[in-house]
């Protein structure tokens, strides 16, 4: 058996998904976790290239995440934002001084012609991360939130308008021209992974952008590694972010079943295991009737122990 | 007499020139000083558009300049640079947290399609400046320092290599496609200025880039307002920066006479008055023989009083 076959590929958006990614990183042998991150949230702001989900993963996996704010870096300071506010500049997207260094570094590297894949890898190394963080693609893909006639770039919806507009749908600009991260594709072709884990991230704006890159979900479906998805909806509410609100506005049942249906409709035969929370155990038979194996586990991750335990449950399914 | 006819147009580079600009702003009626700034030093760094000479003028004229460092903002903090250093990013060009807000704001405005002229004007208003700061042109012009076979972008020569390379010449990339700031041209056409003052800035890398924009120096020569140039060389040394070192390397006599010759050779009939320091009084006859009227004044500006006195001397010549 090749050493790489102990490796796991996780698909993740930002904060919610990064929690399980941290658990997986902790319970897997060092360097065996590969995380493919959504970059549909990436945007240019104040001249800088910002990759919110990649940065959340970088900060979480390096132990530098700000647990109080729930985003950004621990011990952050805000000198630049304060000065920008005095200039009446745009401060709705809060960029801490330490966080800004990441964006400046990344933007400088992009201007020098480096690839987002290489940049992300270097940042992970510089932050002392042993796991591998892979942007979902090199190309620019931009998640657009449709809301009653308005088309909002994701961060405008998510941060500036605080998820208040009711959503009617989503689109991913540029996705038709994007290709799955070639490094991940090479590992998949090499049967490098023992499992693929879809972290409890937002189905519409974190996971769909990844899966809908041409060739992506069919490649994941066709590879030998089983795919485990952890429901981001527990007891009718979202573990993190606007997933529940979006489901409600889209007329989808706000339950783990609604999540399972979303994936089974859009990506037939992709899911092997669907992990739901203990509190949603009664939904198991109906989810199973969609043709996926249901696993029941405590999925709420309040501390590192919770994250590690959920990671162990997930890996136990395929071990 | 139109009110505008009390206005003065100053040409300036960074720190040295900004000192006299501040003196002029103080002794002229509020709002009557127009400063046309060199933008040949502008460059992109870490993804940001940086305009060092404009920023020095903004910070100096708003009373926010860092007198201790001699550049940047007073009370500056360095959180972002410290974080960037930890990422092993480029920190040779020191960007303070407050200074960074200016660059982020400017870069964001440029990305939204605003002109450098409008951006500079807005920044000046936001900083409470009553004088008018005009970039020399809207187009991108880049000063290149030639040094024994190497061509160094100006900030690389000036900051990263600390002016150590011996210069053999200069070029201004893009200058042939540039046009003089149209707002300044309109004021000149309207005979708005009672005097044009060339501040004691570096002839080669601060003033030449301005004057060599097509149509610039001939328009200044042909307008009715007298032109007064203040020598940046006093007693064989530069008031600020590498002017003396450059003159020496170029084989130009490192004296106020050398400066006068430079301008008279390149821009015949441009200078009406040439102001030299009291300590250089013996050079007056030879400079006068070049066809310019020589004025002798204390030109070293150590404090605000010095700046105001020199401004009054300059204005007295043409009053």
Question: How would you describe this structure to a colleague?
Answer:
- The structure is a homodimer of 319-residue chains.
- Chain A has one domain (3-40, 115-318): Rossmann fold (3-Layer(aba) Sandwich), CATH 3.40.50.
- In chain A, helix 1 (15-27) packs parallel to helix 2 and helix 4 crosses helix 5 (116-126).
- Chain A has a seven-stranded parallel beta sheet, with helices on both faces. A three-stranded antiparallel beta sheet of chain A has the order 7-6-8. In chain A, strands 3-4 form a two-stranded antiparallel sheet.
- Chain A has helices spanning 15-27, 52-61, 79-86, 97-111, 116-126, 154-160, 182-189, 203-211, 216-222, 243-249, 256-266, 284-288, 304-318, and strands at residues 7-12, 33-37, 43-45, 48-50, 132-135, 142-147, 150-153, 169-173, 193-198, 227-230, 233-234, 237-238, 273-277, 293-297.
- The first copy, chain A, is globular, with a radius of gyration of 19 Å.
- Chain A starts with 6 loop residues before the first strand and ends with a helix.
- The first copy, chain A, is built from 13 helices and 14 strands.
- The first copy, chain A, has 319 residues and is an alpha/beta fold.
- Helix content of chain A is 39%, strand content 19%.
- The A-B interface holds A 44-49, 77, 79-81, 83-84, 86-90, 97-98, 100-102, 104-105, 107-108, 110-111, 123, 126 and B 44-49, 77, 79-81, 83-84, 86-90, 97-98, 100-102, 104-105, 107-108, 110-111, 123, 126.
């Amino acid at each position: 058996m090749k050493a790489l076959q102990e490796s796991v590929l996780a698909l993740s958006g930002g904060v919610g998904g990064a929690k399980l990614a941290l658990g997986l990183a902790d319970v897997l042998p060092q360097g065996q976790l590969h995380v493919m991150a959504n970059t549909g949230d990436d945007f240019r702001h104040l001249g800088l290239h910002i990759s919110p989900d990649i940065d959340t993963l970088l900060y979480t996996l390096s132990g530098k995440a700000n647990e109080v704010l729930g985003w950004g870096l621990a011990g952050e300071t805000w000198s630049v934002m304060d000065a920008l506010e005095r200039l009446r500049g745009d401060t709705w997207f809060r960029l801490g001084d330490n966080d800004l260094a990441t964006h400046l570094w990344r933007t400088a590297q992009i201007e020098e012609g480096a690839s987002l894949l290489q940049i992300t890898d270097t940042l992970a190394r510089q932050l002392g991360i042993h796991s591998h963080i892979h942007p979902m693609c090199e190309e620019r893909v931009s998640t657009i939130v449709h809301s009653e006639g308005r088309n909002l770039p994701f961060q405008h919806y998510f941060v500036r308008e605080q998820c208040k507009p009711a959503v009617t749908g989503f689109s991913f600009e540029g996705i038709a021209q994007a290709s799955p991260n070639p490094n991940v594709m090479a590992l998949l072709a090499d049967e490098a992974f023992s499992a693929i884990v879809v972290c409890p991230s937002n189905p519409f704006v974190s996971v769909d952008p990844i899966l809908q890159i041409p060739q992506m979900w069919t490649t994941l479906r066709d590879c030998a590694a089983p795919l485990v998805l952890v429901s981001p909806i527990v007891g009718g509410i979202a573990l993190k972010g606007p997933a529940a609100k979006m489901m409600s506005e889209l007329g989808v049942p706000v339950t783990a079943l609604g999540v399972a249906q979303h994936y089974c409709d859009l990506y037939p035969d992709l899911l092997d295991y669907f992990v739901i929370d203990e509190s949603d155990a009664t939904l198991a038979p109906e989810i199973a009737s969609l043709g996926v194996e249901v696993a029941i586990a405590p999925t709420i991750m309040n501390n590192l122990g919770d994250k590690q335990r959920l990671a162990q449950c997930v890996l136990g399914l395929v071990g």
